[in-house]
Amino acid sequence: MLWMFQRVMFGEITKEANRTLKDLSLREVCVLLPLIFFIVQIGVYPRPFLSRMDATVKHLITQVESKNVTARC
Asked: In a structure prediction context, what are the per-residue pLDDT tens digits for the chain, which is 73 residues long?
């Protein structure tokens, strides 16, 4: 797999038409910037996203623990 990645990403350009390709267009940058922003925000300050799941996670934990207790008996 590493061999394939090296050849695709760092190999020589075999077709002349590929030499003039741009990396990203303005449209692609406009789509990626909000995604990158949210990824960084979730990584730096995840509390707003995780707090929405608190009630559901607590309910799931109580269900799993109650089934675990009944399975032991």
From this structure: 899 999 888 888 888 988 888 889 999 999 999 999 999 999 999 999 899 999 999 999 999 999 888 877 6
How far apart are the C-alpha atoms of 16 and 22, rounded to whole Å?
13
**What is the pTM (predicted TM-score) of this model?**
0.55
**CA 60 to CA 51: how far, in whole Å?**
15
Whether 42 and 49 have beta carbons less than 8 Å apart is answered as yes
CA–CA dist 13, 35 (Å, integer): 30
3-state helix, strand, coil split of the chain in percent (to 5) is 80, 0, 20
For residues 23, 26, 32 and 34, what is the CA-based torsion angle, rounded to 10 degrees? 160
For 2, the token pair is 């590493």
